[in-house]
Design brief:
Shape: elongated
Number of helices: 3
Strand content: 25-35%
Largest sheet: 4 strands, antiparallel
CATH class: Alpha Beta
Helix content: 25-40%
Strand order of the largest sheet: 2-3-1-4
Radius of gyration: 15 Å
Length: 107
């Protein structure tokens, strides 16, 4: 079990930007990521005519990292996924209470 504090970043992004988000997370200090494909709904309908330009296909990315890298990873994926633009996705950070099998890259 991991004795160090950890953070979980969950990133939901447009599927077409998923690879850029993964690359940005790794370049910012994440040691790995898990992702899957999903479909979103809600924002497209609320934006009316502008919602037609929002793709429903999403990529969801999980990144577990130490707190020292969490802000840098969040900033990098926000930029790569254009998350500050309406309808492009979102990200959030949670504290991890317990973890097993996390590899920090240190021996």
């Amino acid at each position: 079990m991991a004795d160090q504090p950890l953070h979980l970043l969950t990133i939901v992004t447009q599927r077409k930007l998923g690879d850029a988000v993964l690359d940005a997370a790794l370049e910012a200090g994440a040691t790995g990521a898990t992702f899957f494909y999903a479909q979103g709904t809600g924002v497209r309908q609320k934006l009316g005519i502008l919602g037609m330009f929002i793709e429903s296909e999403k990529q969801v990315v999980f990144v577990v990292t130490d707190p020292a890298h969490a802000d840098a990873v969040l900033a990098a994926v926000t930029k790569a996924g254009r998350l500050e633009e309406p309808g492009m996705g979102f990200a959030y950070v949670q504290e991890v209470i317990k973890a097993v099998g996390f590899y920090s890259g240190k021996k």
